[in-house]
């Protein structure tokens, strides 16, 4: 869904990443299953196997469902373009390059990241179930999607987990005190299963905002908040086009505390890139790929699984019992906003902006499908 609809969520606290409106973009309510089917059809037409396409489309729509449209079907044009350029290799399964009881490295072969990240997450949790703790890295992967998906998967498998991702060949973030691009947005995520409740899921970029949200603003003709981007001269910019004209994103914390985000970003780049063997960000990388490192911990293997998850439940309830400063906005935990948005979209249908529908039409046409297939499959009335 679009960020404009995201702002309608009464539980969404003010956030620099959602502080602008896309209300000028009309919204069309569609059924998630129909959108997923459209994604599969587009990816198969682009050359993907049905299984690959189903895995990717499922995760893209899941991102839209929780309000993270920067990692949703908006990515389909990017993926199709990368397939055509040979930057995503279809019909590819990660290869196990290194394997010990508690450590493994997979080579993704530039295949779909959603496929590789699913395999890597399951492998990390399986190893942790016998070793207590395990680390699995996936290198040379296409875009792995929203990290929160893999944290939720690990929690479903009973694991506490940490996930680190870097992106090669296309740095977007300026180093602290610099103006040129030196780092990727380098997201990190971690999660904790909770007894008799949803897991705690934290997923964040180490840049002040995800690049995809700047892209959404540019597509909608909207300005962005001050502090997100510097232009090519190192001057703060509110025009999103400045980022794509030689500018850079700021590190998390912006002008006031960007040194902290910079330090986090640097370490994520090394955790994902150096440990995996896929490399840290830089100008000499051949393909803009992801590296992913997962650390999984099994409370069950420690012999204290129920106790640990009960403590997570107690602590969660203690935090939620805080008296809110705004009575209309209760104290939430990481992951609550996304779950509320998902429930809303399940009940009322997923809102797609006109610009996203148009991008889907153009992508369908690019792979040899009629533009009208988008309207037909999504049952959008013209």
Structure description:
By secondary structure, the protein is of the alpha+beta class. The protein folds into three domains: 1-88 and 349-382, Hypothetical Oxidoreductase Yiak, Chain: A, domain 1 (Orthogonal Bundle), CATH 1.10.1530; 92-208 and 250-330, Malate/L-lactate/L-sulpholactate dehydrogenase, NADPH binding domain (Ribosomal Protein S8, Chain: A, domain 1); 209-246, Hypothetical oxidoreductase yiak, domain 3 (Wheat Germ Agglutinin (Isolectin 2), domain 1, 2-Layer Sandwich), CATH 3.30.60. The protein contains twelve helices and 14 strands. The chain has helices at residues 3-6, 32-45, 50-65, 76-84, 113-131, 147-156, 211-220, 254-276, 305-320, 336-348, 354-366, 372-378; strands at residues 27-30, 95-100, 103-107, 133-141, 160-167, 173-174, 181-183, 188-194, 197-204, 229-230, 236-237, 248-249, 290-297, 350-353. The strands form four sheets. The protein has a seven-stranded mixed β-sheet with strand order 2-3-4-13-5-8-9, with helices on both faces. It has a three-stranded antiparallel β-sheet with strand order 11-10-12, with no helix packed on it. Helix 5 (113-131) packs parallel to helix 6 and helix 11 (354-366) crosses helix 12 (372-378). The longest helix is centred in the C-terminal third of the chain and has 23 residues, at 254-276. The chain is globular. The two termini are 19 Å apart.
